[in-house]
């Protein structure tokens, strides 16, 4: 009996020794609760952007997203004045933007004066021009011609960048009478330009409009208008503002750097008829 027991013990020892390493005599350490690596929290950069400069800003946003995988960029468009008004009323952090892009430095300066923005930088410039249909049936040749009673004029609303710039231009030129010929306004510069195009009945709603020079070379407007320069007009600066209490300061700064200098900004603005900040006289608002 003793011999049989010894043989059995010997066979058992041999079988244990032949088992694959790690299968016998070892236990995996238990993972501590919460030790699993969690996926990174998605981040969102919110941008208020004047509608009139949407095309180049979209290109800049695309470049930003390529450089920041996983970051969502949410754009909200509107007139510069309307967006500034929203900045003063929005309280919830989930709705407030991190960046405000205005079609004129006036609105950026107001945002800074009200403590809403702590940095305001120039992105690009454009200039008001008179736009008429390409065949120019009324023979309009200068700003003064818009005061003629037979000319229907389209102007931007006062709360838009183009509307505010137009009002100051008309005051400067002593041609406020042109407002009397304004048949319809527009809440964005694109709405103003559209009034020069034939509608469903084949007739345009306006004979002339004051729009940005860059607007006339974008999208459906390309080649549709004759542009008449306005000697009294000054370059208008498009500005980008960092919101003072943004929780995404690092992302906002990266976006601003991309939008104000370098190849991305230069190509985006030049492509759509603007003068990029690098190519314009440098000055701060």
Describe the structure.
With about 280 residues, this protein is an alpha/beta fold. It folds into two domains: about 45-125 and about 235-280, Periplasmic binding protein-like II (D-Maltodextrin-Binding Protein, domain 2), CATH 3.40.190.10; about 130-230, Periplasmic binding protein-like II (D-Maltodextrin-Binding Protein, domain 2). The protein has eight helices and eleven strands. It has helices spanning about 1-20, 55-65, 80-90, 105-115, 160-175, 190-195, 250-260, 265-270, and strands at about 45-50, 70-80, 100, 115-125, 130-135, 155, 180-185, 210, 225-230, 235-245, 275. Helix 2 (about 55-65) runs antiparallel to helix 8. The radius of gyration is 31 Å and the shape is elongated. Residues about 5-35 and about 280-285 have low confidence and may be disordered.
In a few lines, what is going on in this structure?
By secondary structure, the chain is an alpha/beta fold.
Question: Can you give keywords for this protein?
Answer:
disordered C terminus; about 280 residues; D-Maltodextrin-Binding Protein, domain 2; 6-stranded mixed beta sheet; 8 helices; alpha/beta; 5-stranded mixed beta sheet
């Amino acid at each position: 009996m003793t011999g049989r027991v010894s043989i059995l013990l010997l066979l058992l020892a041999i079988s244990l020794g032949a088992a694959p390493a790690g299968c016998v005599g070892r236990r995996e350490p238990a993972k501590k609760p919460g030790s699993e690596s969690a996926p990174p929290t998605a981040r969102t950069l919110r941008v208020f952007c004047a509608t009139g400069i949407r095309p180049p800003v979209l290109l800049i946003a695309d470049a930003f997203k390529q450089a920041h995988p996983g970051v969502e960029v949410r754009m909200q468009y509107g007139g510069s004045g309307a967006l500034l008004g929203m900045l003063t009323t929005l309280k919830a952090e989930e709705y407030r933007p991190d960046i405000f892009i205005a079609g004129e430095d006036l609105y950026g300066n107001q945002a800074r004066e009200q403590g809403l923005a702590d940095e305001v930088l120039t992105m690009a410039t454009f200039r008001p021009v008179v736009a008429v249909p390409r065949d120019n049936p009324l023979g309009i040749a200068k700003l003064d011609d818009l005061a003629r009673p037979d000319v229907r004029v389209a102007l931007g609303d006062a709360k838009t960048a183009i509307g505010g710039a137009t009002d100051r231009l008309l005051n400067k030129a002593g041609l406020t009478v042109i407002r009397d010929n304004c048949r319809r306004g527009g809440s964005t510069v694109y709405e103003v330009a559209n009034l020069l195009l034939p509608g469903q009945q084949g007739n345009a709603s306006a004979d002339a409009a004051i729009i940005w020079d860059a607007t006339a070379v974008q999208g459906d407007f390309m080649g549709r208008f004759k542009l008449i320069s306005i000697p009294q007009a000054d370059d208008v600066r498009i500005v980008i503002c960092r919101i003072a209490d943004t929780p995404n300061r690092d992302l906002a700064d990266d976006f601003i750097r991309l939008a104000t200098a370098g190849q991305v900004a230069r190509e985006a603005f030049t492509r759509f008829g603007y003068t990029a900040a690098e190519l314009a006289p440098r000055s701060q608002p």
